[in-house]
Amino acid sequence: MLMFVDTPRGMDDLLPGEMVLKRRIEDVIRDVFRLYGYLEVETPTVEYYELFAVKSGEEIRERMFDFIDKGGRRLVLRPEVTASIARLVSTKLKAWPLPLRLGYIADCYRYDEPQWGRRRRFWQGGFELFGSKSPLADAEILQVSYEVFNRIGLKNHFFKVGHIGILRRILEKEGVQESEQNRILSMIDRKLVDQAFEYMTSLGVSSDAVNSIEKLLSLEGSDSEKIFRQASDILSSWGEANRCLENLQEIVEVARAGGVSSPIIISPGLARGLEYYDGFIFEQGVPDAQISFNGGGRYDRLVELFGGKPTPGVGCAIGITRILQYLLDKSPEKPAPRRPDILLVGIPKVSISYMAEVAYRLRCMGYPLEVDVVGKRVPTAIEYALKQGMKFVILVGEREEEERKISIKNLEKAVQVEAALDDEKSIKEVLGVVCSH
Hints:
about 425 residues, alpha+beta, BirA Bifunctional Protein, domain 2, Rossmann fold, five-stranded mixed β-sheet, 16 strands
């Protein structure tokens, strides 16, 4: 088999039924954009390497599709979109009033090992809120995520929430530089906990700090009152870290008041791989999947890093491709693509110009239709239309062309009537609104 007739590894073709389901997921996300006031934007698939290298994290840096263009510039296929949105806010949108709510649906690329839930090309739908440090803003990101999952039909979803500031403040007090913090947090995110502790020890982190972090990493549960109380005890001698915990507790309370009723797992030792997170962080998933379907958090210094004025931000990236794969696995029967309700068929000796004119006139009236372009016999065409779930077959022959008419066959009622092509009222009386879009 010729290699080029297959897709590159980790890149997928989507067939019509899969596209129907993908569009449904995207439509839900766009509905929630409108419900909460997020303005949709689009950024380039190709960006400068430095945009992501500066703060995306070691794991993403190692997995970017990067290349040198003909002008000698180092570029990448975007591995995620938040950095691109922050660039947009720092440049073209810098004069827009705050708060600023932006949404996107975009394809991203990472050189991951292809497996369930990890593709080299994948789609995300994102919500980004700029201009507020209020827990109300963080809670809104949980609210929009809750709304999207419920509308898609993932009603058994749950959240895992944490605050990256808890670990960072402990490490800061121990004199650990930010670049070293990033490395430790990346190890924790990748479940390389023993390596993280070894590295902390090599940096001279005290046993008190290591013990506190170890206790935090083992503390997790959905009894929020109990977890927050135990975490507060662990952090009693770490004032700044304890204030981050209090911030997390307030965010959860506000989200609950805002209608988020799904389970929320409190994880004070939660870490995420992206280096730009500096506050509240979260993941969202379902019980029977081992990988999260959504994740996000607060990044208050990202816009400033790209030359903009200090602008706090918080957001999330919903994994459209992961949700699509999950839904397809749960229901192997893919949704049927929507076909037009009308098939236009030519009877021998009719001119193809008249067929084209009839199709044009009907579409101008608002009726989607398919034109038989292979010359099916009428019985075969009717059989095809029935199999496709169509409701009408419109027949045009030499006589119809001479009289400027069409013959409309109602497949459900098994009746056939004629109408003048110029008589829009009569045509609409026959076809009704069932197939009008």
